[in-house]
Amino acid sequence: MESFAFHNPTKLLFGKGQVSSLKKEIPAYGKRVLLLYGGGSIKKSGLYDKVIGELNEIDAYVVELGGVEPNPRLTTVNQGIALIRENQLDFILAVGGGSVIDAAKAIAAGVPYDGDVWDIVTSKAKAPSSAVPIGTVITIAGTGSEMNGNSVITNWETNTKAFFNSNHVLPRFSILDPELTSTVPRDQTVYGSVDIMAHVFEQYFHASSNAPLQERIGEAILRTVIETAPKLVNDLNNYDYREVMLLNGTLALNGLTGMGVNPDWATHLIEHAVSAVHDIPHGGGIAIIAPHWMEHVAAVRPEKVAQLGVRVFDLDPTGKTDAELASEAIQALRAFWASIGAPAKLSDYGIDDKEIELMTERAMLAEQIGNYVPLTKDDVRTILRKSL
Amino acid sequence: MESFAFHNPTKLLFGKGQVSSLKKEIPAYGKRVLLLYGGGSIKKSGLYDKVIGELNEIDAYVVELGGVEPNPRLTTVNQGIALIRENQLDFILAVGGGSVIDAAKAIAAGVPYDGDVWDIVTSKAKAPSSAVPIGTVITIAGTGSEMNGNSVITNWETNTKAFFNSNHVLPRFSILDPELTSTVPRDQTVYGSVDIMAHVFEQYFHASSNAPLQERIGEAILRTVIETAPKLVNDLNNYDYREVMLLNGTLALNGLTGMGVNPDWATHLIEHAVSAVHDIPHGGGIAIIAPHWMEHVAAVRPEKVAQLGVRVFDLDPTGKTDAELASEAIQALRAFWASIGAPAKLSDYGIDDKEIELMTERAMLAEQIGNYVPLTKDDVRTILRKSL
Questions:
Q1: Is B11-181 a domain of CATH 3.40.50.1970?
Q2: Which of A7, A197, A213, A228 should be substituted to probe chain B, the one whose Cβ sees the most B Cβ atoms within 10 Å?
Q3: Ranges for the Fe-containing alcohol dehydrogenase-like C-terminal domain (chains A, B) (predicted)?
Q4: What is the distance between the alpha carbons of residues B95 and B137, in angstroms, rounded to a whole number?
Q5: Do residues A52 and A79 touch, judged by C-beta distance below 8 A?
Q6: Could you give the angle at the alpha carbon of B74 between the alpha carbons of B68 and B78, nearest 5°?
Q7: B 198-237: CB under 8 A from A
Q8: Which among B256, B262, B209 has a CA at the least distance from the CA of A241?
Q9: Is B82 exposed, middle or buried, given 0-12, 13-18 or 19+ CB atoms closer than 10 A?
Q10: Which of A217, A244, A256 sits opposite B212 (nearest CB)?
Q11: For chain A, domain boundaries
């Protein structure tokens, strides 16, 4: 393992009806609240009314910012920052999926910063030393944003998706009521399941030694997704399945499986480049790119892919080489994602080879990306071409 | 799952040389420090000098309390409380194993309390609403006390071992340097491994439904112990094995596998009764009692014991009933503990049937104990008799 610091003070409030904890949790941070949400599904579901009811009970002064996009935009972040400054708000309540929470984090870090918040997101500015406190009510399982300090923001002026991480933007509390995720449509449910698995992969394929416990915990999450997602996509209102997937999503990216390992993240970087050029759902992009990335990895270092096959997809290793097992593991992963209805080709989203160079460019944050198997620009271009 | 709140803000600082973080971490809580430690092994190992060096660098005012016992005593806790009050100390640095940290927690909660601290430990007083902040440097893997709010204290006047749990006594930070655990002797290393497994069992055998992820994470910890402990006990100075066992211990009892489930804890209650009457090592007592407890459980509800056998001990379920699998699982557990040199009978510690009634009495905190399979007084007496 690498030396590491782990400090995750987010308070999880998990279970049916936990929205009613808002009136107890918020006052510790102030009563002037920016209420942030997405496309309005929370109004249809009745969640909006419940949240407003809680805020009214504590006589909160509420400023709303709705319409946060699925790939949240810098322009929206800037709007949020302006609203907090103008109205002297002291708390952000993010109600929605990972996009809304990611936007909240960039807003939170941007408020006390003098310059352009994009400098924080792209790590051009110094790391934030303070932020407006955030609380969340999560409505989609998958991103894990409810219990980490990560934020991914898209700048459409430059077709760039960038991310930052700061412990200052860790939600102070997150409300996880599985019932609130029961209205998530089938395709978004699939994307969430894919994203959870990819978060495990990015940390499972690490460049460190001696992390058997972290790997086994990752495998525990993967097996639970593989067991639950197929049942869930055919029974979207099932509370038990929603409950399990919600916890899966939180634990897949809260620092737990990443303790003491140097993670990879190449798949995410490539996908971010794709969805910064073409506005496609993140989980969909991941389902397309990850297997091609894994094939590249298996050609260089097959052993961990083989381990994944044996421990997660129950492959019988008898008489097989790591390369053979790895190839079967990738086949099993593809078959699993196909079985729940995940996309397999960029052309499923109408994307052709026109922007391959721009996407390749955008993925290359450095000369090489990835850690378990570092990728050159040529490698990334090849993975994108195969993904068409 | 049950509804739950999870809030674990302990900062882990894991890796070689992390003791040098003390000078950065402590000043946030004050510089008047109670330095708490055990039998003096930290003086032999040189750790004491390193810690004092760190404290001197920040010009801390240090009052020492050494000699905290393996089953820490109420009398020692009272000494600590008096020292903090007399010297107006504002921070407790606990350097040692779980016993030292448990004592620190009772001291921390006792200082702001007017009455007898034993009332807090036995939950006769209201739950603590504040406590002196604690930091820890852990020297033995096993108890998990470095990342939870649990404390077990023994009152020798009444032969009673009692425990309390409070988020107020969660360590603010814990230093986990695997190298500091490399001088732990073989028997203590075995006890730690047993205790880690028992902590998983207490939460794995829960009385709730629909917790597949928590169970799989428990299995991940168990498999990692089973893989690592036999190598470690034959190679006590191996850094890699110590590293893995240290993280195992922390994650086995930090709230993670207990999310949303109603745990059992009967084995621990019975063992606490044994070691409150006879001063034996906790992990040794657990190794003796747990298999007999599990046999009782298997007779009533074999299915989870069977699952343990298949998923953790790799039993082949083909053509077998749950009862058969459960019986094989318990055999496998016994064989594993015997293989690392854990005791199997109370008579290994010279304990005979003389105090069976007193131990039975002490274990019965209520009419029934345990949740997965509730135990009556007769059940507990039987388990103790079988353990002789």
A1: yes
A2: A213
A3: 189-387
A4: 5
A5: no
A6: 85
A7: 209-210, 212-214, 216-217, 219-221, 223-224, 227-228
A8: B209
A9: middle
A10: A244
A11: 11-181, 186-387
Residue with tokens 């009214």: A56
A62 SS3 class = strand
On chain B, the residues whose CB falls within 8 A of the CB of A227 are 212
Q: How many CB atoms lie within 10 A of CB B356?
A: 18
Q: Which residues contact A336 (CB under 8 A, 6 or more apart)?
A: A226, A313
Cα B35 to Cα B53: distance, rounded to the nearest angstrom: 13
CATH homologous superfamily of domain B186-387? Dehydroquinate synthase-like - alpha domain (1.20.1090.10)
Neighbours of A378 (CB within 10 A): 9
Q: In this complex, do A5 and B16 lie within 8 Å of one another by their Cβ atoms?
A: no
What's chain A's Rg over C-alpha atoms? 20
CB B174 within 8 A of CB B126: no
- What residues have CB less than 8 Å from A321, skipping those under 6 apart? A302
Smallest Cα–Cα separation from B169: which of B110, B114, B117?
A: B110
Nearest residue on chain A to B212, judged by CA atoms?
A224
- Residue B298 to residues A375, B312, B321, B328, Cα–Cα distance (Å): 52, 16, 12, 11
- Rg of chain B on CA atoms, in Å: 20
A44 touches chain B (CB under 8 A): no
Within chain B, residue ranges assigned H as helices are 22-25, 41-45, 47-57, 74-87, 98-110, 117-121, 186-204, 212-233, 239-252, 266-277, 282-300, 302-312, 322-339, 356-363, 377-387
Q: Do B11 and A5 touch (CB under 8 A)?
A: yes
Question: How would you write the pLDDT of chain B (388 residues) with one tens digit per residue?
Answer: 999 999 999 999 999 999 999 999 999 999 999 999 999 899 999 999 999 999 999 999 999 999 999 989 999 999 999 999 999 999 999 999 999 999 999 999 999 999 999 999 999 999 999 999 999 999 999 999 999 999 999 999 998 999 999 999 999 999 999 999 999 999 999 999 999 999 999 999 999 999 999 999 999 999 999 999 999 999 999 999 999 999 999 999 999 999 999 999 999 999 999 999 998 999 999 999 999 999 999 999 999 999 999 999 999 999 999 999 999 999 999 999 999 999 999 999 999 999 999 999 999 988 999 999 999 999 999 999 999 9
Nearest to B213 among A3, A16, A244 (CB): A244
Is B323 within 8 Å of chain A by CB?
A: no
**What is the C-alpha separation between B168 and B153, in angstroms, rounded?**
17
What is the residue whose two structure tokens read 């470095």? B146
Q: What share of residues in chain A are helix, strand, coil (percent, to 5)?
A: 55, 10, 35
Q: Between A and B, how many residue pairs show a Cβ–Cβ distance under 8 A?
A: 117
Q: What is the 3-state secondary structure (H, E, C) of B73-134?
A: EHHHHHHHHHHHHHHCCCEEEEEECHHHHHHHHHHHHHCCCCCCHHHHHCCCCCCCCCCCCE
